[in-house]
């Protein structure tokens, strides 16, 4: 046996050993999808009115601020519902100026209606409303996907569920702590940093006593747990009067991570991006000595006094456990949801269905492999053994590689596995038929084998590259099950090139190197 055949055998043996090591033990190394392992199936409704309400409130605030800058005093400027802004008490002598400012600020998104006594109503245009609703669903999809990816869920599915229903399908294979997963997914995680105008106080009435019980239109009252705020006894609630518009929000965050406070208790530290650092520096620099409320989902977690100008980072203190601090960091890093979520459906999928599916898939694979093996032995005689070994090794390499990279095996993935058997056999049929043609032209056995592999190589590469392109598009644009099929198919195609061209040829060359043969059983 010459050196060329020897090093080929070493390569084949090494790949085989690595594949076996990667896949053993299979029950621990092969990761299964929801349809095989079980997990959680949820359907969530995106409350898109929340996103519209935020848009209208922001537009009303910006309009009110611009009116103040121009010295136009109105009775009120506020969002009365998710799509409607109402301005009351516009001075008659400044009506033209108001119309001009309104045109500049909100005319692109709202239609204007005029009422008596300086009343103006702005209603969101239907195309703008539809766009905002669709955008809120897309943002919710992206945010949820980032969160479940950080949870370490294998091959999660996060996809639109119904047309025009603003619903999202979430499937989490292998999840055991369902309550924690639900909380992380639905947590809005809206972080806001606002300067405290007054407070803390034990009641809203006490807080607004100096203002005759009236909340200024550009402010709001936010509550928090006194234990975290340092005012009052444990379990009581404190109230703060803060600006309605946040100085800095979670959209300005660069990172969030679990940490410890000065008392060695769990906390969450966060840092800002460049724009956030600039805004935070301006706010803290202009308000030294005042309190800054750190508000998460409408509730104050802490309100420290600003001691100096801060630009880059901050910290959220509170009664956190280590897991709560880690979860809060996760949702802050993934970004705030644009709207709240409502659970419409929740089902826990047990592993029984998965076990049945695995048995059926294995049975189908074995049946297909046996049928193919019998055909190859009957049609190509001893050369069929070569094809059977190549196909078997192709499946071994495929499973080993999937285990090594952590790819998830799903029911569509098993279909891709069975398809790989067909692709492997097809490649061997092409090679064997070419060898038979070379033998009919009265070439020697070694020359016919070499010519058969050499001349079919380009054809195999061409077909496999075309199939890989299709698999890449399936993976890029498909949902979870389609991605599972595309992953198995792509790995199977790559390993088949190795087994059909390299392994199969090595087997022929090893057999021919050991004996002189006048004929080839093919």
Could you characterize what this model shows?
This protein is an alpha+beta fold and 522 residues long. The chain has three domains: 3-37 and 352-514, Multidrug efflux transporter AcrB transmembrane domain (Multidrug efflux transporter AcrB transmembrane fold), CATH 1.20.1640.10; 49-126, Hypothetical Protein, Haloacid Dehalogenase-like Hydrolase, Chain: A, domain 2; 192-310, Gyrase A, domain 2. The chain has helices at 3-23, 26-29, 34-37, 48-69, 95-106, 126-150, 178-186, 204-207, 226-229, 274-286, 322-334, 351-380, 383-405, 411-440, 445-477, 480-514, and strands spanning 31-32, 39-46, 76-81, 84-88, 110-114, 120-124, 157-160, 167-173, 191-201, 219-225, 237-243, 248-249, 253-260, 266-272, 292-296, 299-302, 313-316, 341-349, 408-409. The strands form five sheets. Strands 9, 10, 11, 12, 15 and 16 form a six-stranded antiparallel β-sheet that branches. Strands 7-8-2-18 form a four-stranded antiparallel β-sheet. The chain has a four-stranded antiparallel β-sheet with strand order 3-4-6-5. Helix 4 (48-69) packs across helix 5, helix 12 (351-380) packs antiparallel against helix 13 and helix 14 packs parallel to helix 16. It is elongated.
